[in-house]
Amino acid sequence: MGSTAFQKTNPFNNEIFAYGFRNPNTISWTKKGDIIAANIGHRNIESLYVIKKGQDYGWPEHEGSFVLKYKESMDWVYPENTITAIVPPVAQYDHDEGNAISGGNEYWGAKIKPLIGKYIFGDIVKGRVFYVENERCR
Question: How many whole angstroms separate alpha carbon 47 and alpha carbon 70?
Fold first, then answer.
């Protein structure tokens, strides 16, 4: 997507496309043109989002799909979701699985057939590799 197309679709007067991220360390595009961001969490949850214009992805009220009571303590997350306007992640994992999500890419190759149509990403601390079925990212 060129900068002109981006400017025409930006709902925030060409300054902010979407908001509510703590640390979207890697952004990539699917073959279809969807924007995918890997968001490094604060304390507990690493998350992967499909970015849509004008949407709120929850930070600092949420970490992934969990509530973060940031005005009290940022040490814990809670399962109750009281804010329905936020966009939930398409994938997330807690710190039992890894500690810092590293974005990846949708596999566009043909040589590794089991990976076709998967979005592959990793964790930069534990070195784990994960994937999400492509339809979860659309």
Answer: 18
pLDDT in tens, 61-90: 999 999 988 899 888 888 876 667 789 999
Q: Please report, as a single letter, which amino acid is at residue 38.
A: A
Report the phi/psi class of residue 64: left, alpha or beta, with left for phi > 0 and alpha for psi in -120 to 50: left
CB atoms within 10 A of CB 120: 15
> Whole-prediction pTM value?
0.83
* CB-CB contact of 77 with 45 (8 Å): yes
Does residue 75 sit in helix, strand or coil? coil
Token representation of residue 120: 């592959």
CA dist 47 and 20 (Å) reads 12
H/E stretch holding 94: strand 91-94
Task: Check residue 104 and give left, alpha or beta (phi > 0: left; psi -120 to 50: alpha).
Answer: beta
